[in-house]
């Protein structure tokens, strides 16, 4: 018997902790958008499309789909640019903090260890 036959069948691999945090973050942003559209009219209704895309990216990242990685990568990159623009034009410190957080998520998602675990 060789080593491959001795190994028991392993369970499905869990996502990396950073990927799980990004999934939760995308769900949180999607929830804020939905509440902003439905409750207060803070966002235009077209933003519900973004909320649906964020939820799809979050669910796909949990099961390690490559398309979800690309969608989440583009989401955090665009959010970085958007919040950077808000900070540059209106000097709102929370936008700068969120831009830096999104940049950290972007840099985490492009790591080779994260990309290797995708299917």
Give an account of the 3D structure.
There is one protein chain. The protein has 119 residues and is mainly alpha-helical. It has one domain. 76% of the residues lie in helices and 0% in strands. The protein contains 6 helices and no strands. It has helices spanning 3-6, 17-40, 47-62, 66-90, 93-109, 112-116.
Poorly predicted spans: none
Subunit arrangement of the protein: single chain
What is the strand tally?
Answer: 0
The best one-word shape is: globular
**Domains (count):** 1
Please provide the ordered H/E string of secondary-structure elements. Answer: HHHHHH
Instruction: Count the DSSP helices.
Output: 6
What does the largest sheet look like? Answer: none
What portion of residues belong to β-strands? Answer: under 5%
Give the C-alpha Rg: 18 Å
- State the helicity in percent bands: over 70%
Mean pLDDT across residues: 89
Classification by helices and strands:
mainly alpha
C-alpha end-to-end distance: 29 Å
